[in-house]
Amino acid sequence: MTDSTARSRERLAFALDFPSLGAAKDALARVGPEVGVTKVGLELFLREGPAAVRLGIDSGTDVFLDLKLHDIPATVERAVRSACQLGARYLTVHGCGGPAMLEGAAKAAVAENTGLTILAVTVLTSMGQEDLAATGVSDSPAEQVLRLATLATDNGVGGLVCSVQEVGQLRESLGPNPVLVTPGIRPAGADVGDQKRTGTPRGAIESGSSLLVVGRPIRDADDPVAAARAICAEIELAL
Q1: For the residues of 107-122, what is the DSSP string, one character each?
Q2: What is the tens place of the pLDDT at every residue in 198-231?
Q3: Where do the structural domains in the chain lie, given as residue ranges?
Q4: Which is catalytic among the residues 25, 39, 68, 196?
Q5: Mean of the pLDDT values across residues 158-164?
Q6: Residue 186: is its pLDDT beyond 90?
Q7: Burial of 221 (0-12, 13-18, 19+ CB in 10 A)
């Protein structure tokens, strides 16, 4: 494996969107060597709990615990400390949780000193202008993303989750330090499913993304290993 190939794999997170630990384990046995991060979301974590995190760690990957926490500051702080003890590398909170919640999450991660990076979710990639309007937000997704991203980083949060459509804007506005994570990644020609703000792997990296989250294009492929390798090759071209 070349150094550039290794770097490209470090930039790819495979979403373990499976209904059981057994199904996730089978998929990770094949795809794990091709990715640097495994993402454990609500479906798997609610069913299997900490065992889902251990599965990712045992595979030799970093674990992205995608729970999108949004609660009172004290509750979120305690949840962050628990995530640190589980060994997660990344943990999501909602950027709209407010400054006290964001600051509390960031400070709890620093205090535990396990290397956990808090990621503030800005606007879900499944949401468009009409969806935001329905929640009382009149600004465009790009404007809301920048607002919440700035709020999060001003309160000590080290990373952000946004779509490919906004990642370039955030990188330009916030500089090189924040970890920028982009879900909604779809190789050219792939079905976008329920995502509204998507982009290609190469486009995301070239725009400043730190980590790409890919689920269905790998999971549902006829050859998941080949699909993961193709995405890594596209990342490598952009690095």
Answers
A1: HHHHHHTS--EEEEE-
A2: 688 999 999 999 999 999 999 999 999 999 999 9
A3: 3-238
A4: 68
A5: 95
A6: no
A7: middle
Using DSSP's 3-state secondary structure scheme, residue 15 falls into: strand
**Rg of the chain on CA atoms, in Å:** 17
Mean pLDDT of the chain: 93
The SS3 assignment for 219 reads: helix
144 phi and psi angles, rounded to 5 deg: -70, -40
Nearest to 171 by CA among 185, 187, 189, 159: 159
Which structure tokens are listed for 222? 């006829």
Indicate if the pLDDT at residue 192 is higher than 70. no
User: Is residue 68 among the annotated active site residues?
Assistant: yes
**DSSP annotation string for 51-115:** HHHHHHHHTT-EEEEEEEE-S-HHHHHHHHHHHHHHT-SEEEEEGGG-HHHHHHHHHHHHHHTS-
Measured N-to-C along each axis, helices 224-238 and 3-10 cross at an angle, to the nearest 10 degrees, of 110
- Does domain 3-238 sit in CATH 3.40.640.10? no
Length of the chain: 239
| Cα(56)–Cα(89) distance, integer angstroms | 11
Q: Which residue has the tokens 């930039």?
A: 11
Give the pLDDT band of residue 167 (cuts 50, 70, 90).
very high
Q: Can you give the pTM of this predicted structure?
A: 0.93
Confidence of residue 184 (pLDDT cuts 50, 70, 90): confident
Phi, psi for residue 88 in degrees, rounded to 5: -65, 150
